[in-house]
Amino acid sequence: MKGFQARCTAADTGVVAGGGAPAWFGPALAAGLAGIRADIADIRGDIAEIRGDIANLTARQRNAVAVHQTDQLIPLNNGAGNSDPNFPPTIYALNSMNGPRLTTSLTFYGQPAGGAVEARRDRFKKFVGIRL
Fold first, then answer.
1. How far from 22 is each of 31, 34, 114, CA to CA, in Å?
2. What is the SS3 assignment for 49?
3. Which has the closest alpha carbon to 76: 9, 132, 18, 124?
4. Using an 8 Å Cβ cutoff, are 99 and 107 in contact?
């Protein structure tokens, strides 16, 4: 009687008599894992974005305390994680930026680049964390 009960139980649950996983288990597991792997990839992307945001926040905080013309500025990263190769190293250098260079830097960071030179300079200062 034990053998009969075992076979009936196996048939009811889909388990192959004698042990082992049912035929549907492998594909179902693979499909479930594919979704989990996609979720993990999304989370990794989110973490990378958060790290970039934290780095920019830190740079803005350090730039906010720069008050003298010779104080060093910390460059920010754009959405791709790159810093502007023309980022001004000091407040003096930022104050000396001309119109085309301001336009290039604002565009690099995805900021509006229109307006008079002083307006663009103020916009850039505000973006990098310098208090006006």
1. 15, 20, 65
2. helix
3. 124
4. no
CA atoms lying within 13 Å on the CB side of residue 121: 14
Instruction: Tell me the helix, strand and coil percentages in the chain, rounded to 5.
Output: 60, 5, 35
- Whole-angstrom Cα distance, residue 90 to residue 84? 14
Give the single-character DSSP code of 70. T
pLDDT in tens, 77-112: 998 889 999 999 999 999 999 999 999 999 999 999
Which residue carries 């200062």 as its tokens? 125
pTM higher than the cut 0.85: no
The tens digit of pLDDT for each residue in 13-53 reads 555 555 688 999 999 999 999 999 999 999 999 998 899 89
What is the DSSP-derived secondary structure letter of residue 112? -
